[in-house]
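Field reference: sequence -> structure
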Amino acid sequence: MTGWRPLLPAAAAGTTLTALGLLSLTVPAARTLPGNASGPHLAPPSARYPFGTTDTGLSVLDLVVFGAHRTLIIAALSTALALGVGTATGVLAGHFQGWPDRVLSRFTQWVLVLPQLPLAITIAAVLGPGLAQLSLAIALAYWPATARVVRAAVVATESLPHLERARALGAGHWRQIRVHTWPAVLPVVITCTTLTLGNALLSEATLSFFGLGDTTSVTWGGMLQDASGIGAITAGAWWYLLAPGLAITLVVMVCSIAGRSTEAALGRHQAHGLLLRRPRWRRSAAGEPAGPEPV
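Structure field:
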């Protein structure tokens, strides 16, 4: 029981992310955002409106809940794209030495030196508004970081004795990656997933704040843009900015806690051989050990 205590923060953070995801999926399906506002304009927080109202009389709390649906979808989609491209590039560059490593590494380093947020803004401005375009712009800006970290983990794994033994016994590239390399870099990929999710959420909020997001749907970044557009600070409507800002901060903090805790816990168990495959010994007809099984 003591060995799994480091996983408790990651489990709590994962539970929080799951609850937020289910909330963002179920609430918009169960209710529709009213088109005609009935509340007072820019009303401060009260019992009826815990986070106040907007300049059109809509509840800020309702907007935050409805905005979580599109915001988390964009963040999850862009994270999946960035992780897919980054992981594949890192594994291929780290496993196949020679010219594939040089080409992929040079291209990754070339993209990596570009500032991520200005790059995402430029790509989003070229692609135009929309869920798919915004997700692709964020993914194209953040995949090199994952590729570099995964490549370093693969290179470190390739020099381990059990992988050299697998190559000596005739294991193919696919089997080496699937059986030996992938379990070793899994903690790195999980950490990159949670950290990239937080960065993607911040990028979505920034792009939407600059008017590069989908203006036809409610997002947390779009709420910040609307609040800034009406001069919420000068009007004293601080609650209009506080609610989406707190939502973004909460999710990013949860992603960071989940990533760091998972990396520490899985790395510790991996060091004890729980994730790495141990060689199994076959026995001869007489029952004596005859050597490791072919990999």
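Note: The chain has one domain: 56-277.
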